[in-house]
Amino acid sequence: MILKYTLLDPSATEPIFATAQAACFDLTATSVKVACSNARIYGTGLAFNIPEGYHLEVYIRSGLAFKYDFILANAVGIVDSDFTGELMVKIAYIGD
Mean pLDDT, 10 residues at a time, over the chain (96 residues)? Predict the structure, then answer.
């Protein structure tokens, strides 16, 4: 299956698989805003066309979690097929 998407921002980059063995594609941020003292909301500049009956799951990379003490604020992001807006990701810092 091919997951279609739209670049909403001229600075947005296409989602890519970092390696041939990667289980998921990587996203990059086009915008950031403060959510609270330890969390930021990152805009991806992407809108996904998720087929009906499917969903998109968003996870944080384990390397970011281990190296920098970051977590996805809602643990796992679920994006339903009827959501057509920009994919935004809320990341929190849980270190000392």
Answer: 93 94 93 94 97 94 87 89 96 88
Long-range contacts of 77-86 (CB under 8 A, 24+ apart): 79/48, 79/50, 79/55, 80/50, 80/55, 81/50, 81/51, 81/52, 81/53, 81/54, 81/55, 83/50, 84/47, 84/49, 85/47, 86/8, 86/43, 86/44, 86/45, 86/46, 86/47
Residue 12, token pair as written in the block: 């947005």
Q: Please report the pLDDT score of residue 65 as a whole number.
A: 84
The whole-number pLDDT of residue 92 equals 94
Residue for token pair 């091919």: 2
Q: What gap in Å lies between CA 42 and CA 90, rounded to an integer?
A: 6
